[in-house]
Amino acid sequence: MRLGPLSTERHAAADGGRPESGRRRRGVLRRLPPRVRGPVKWSFRAVMAVVLVIAVYVGVTIYPYLSGPGTDSVAARVAEWGRDHHLSWAVSWLENETYTAPPTGGNLSAAQRKALLGVGAPHPHPTASSAAPADLPTAIPAQAANPLPGEGVWHPVTYEAGTPVIEEAALRPDAQHTSELAYAAWMNQKALSFNLHPGYQQPGGSWPVPDQLTGSALNGLVATFNGGFKVHPNDALGGYYADGTTASPLVTGKAAEVFYRDGSLKIGVWGSGLTMTPDVVAVRENLSPLVEGGAVQVGSEAGSSAQWGYTINNDYYIARSGVGITASGDIVYVSGAALSVQTLAQLLKAAGAVNAMELDINPDWVSFMTYSGHASDPNPAKLWDFTQPADRYLQPASRDFVSVHLR
Fold this sequence. Notes:
Layout: H1 5-14, H2 20-31, H3 34-67, H4 74-84, H5 88-97, H6 110-116, E1 155-160, E2 163-171, E3 182-187, E4 192-197, E5 221-226, E6 240-242, E7 245-248, E8 255-260, E9 265-270, E10 273-274, E11 280-285, E12 289-292, E13 295-296, H7 305-308, E14 318-326, E15 331-339, H8 341-350, E16 353-361, E17 368-372, E18 379-382, E19 401-406
Parallel strand pairs: 9-10
Antiparallel strand pairs: 1-2, 2-3, 3-15, 4-19, 5-17, 5-19, 6-7, 6-11, 8-9, 8-11, 12-13, 12-16, 14-15, 14-16, 17-18
């Protein structure tokens, strides 16, 4: 007899309105021998319980990362959660598997050629300059054949009393990646002071220095740049100390930024000329030195994890950043979208650094901004087109950074 709509509804009601998959599963269980049916049922329930616990754990632990303030992308936040919850191996594996090498050869675009000439940079126009030639940096030697107009030439960005205090330059990073650019910033330490700011996640905790630039922290602000690798877990393989508090123990032999009470900054190897004194306000270590005593410390090979950390392969050409100090005590910062550890080290040395260290890497973490305008309404400008927005540090930052101010 053919069932009509009413009969169909009655059959569904008699079955409790359960979905077809539920009826099918019960049918499979009924076909099993009684001695097997019970264990299978309990095994299924145990698996579902584990899945539920994992889902709840992920939901509870990942929420603070996704809901936190700041400008970090969703992908970066998820990766941070993974690294903080024993999944660094998975994040690094995914980064390595999805890595696409930048093209070799080729030519710069019209926009990149303008960058070499300083076109578009927020240049002031002083009426006079009191700077002696010895106070200014020399051009960065070209790293690729047939230097282009403006390649490695410094362009003033920030002046104080007619004296350049921040200058920027761009050049091709090496002889192979000739369609890419690396970017450098020179900072006149005689006219500037440097402050280390904590991130609300890295290193986390409570600090007297804010995790964003607001209020009095905007006075005299002329630049900011990113910090180093994570210290929790310790991807930096080094320490973090500030204002009498140690977030991660300092490690002798690691590269370090050392911040002093007078606003000065030194860069070198902790325990080798740089030690704890009453004048030290903060120390930020990150991996092994890239340049020490004027010599590049990186070979053509990737190096070991003990040197360069447990992140994406060190011979990969990705977004990287580094900072160094010149023989005259000025500070140079270098970053770019397609740098290996070795090319970063070579560029820092070429920019004048006698001691230098790697800072953060990957497009989500590299940033350098200069600022113009009044402290009540700062106008940030990016060194190059990295992922983070120009106002990254004008709101709470998840990772530590350095602010640079006029003295």
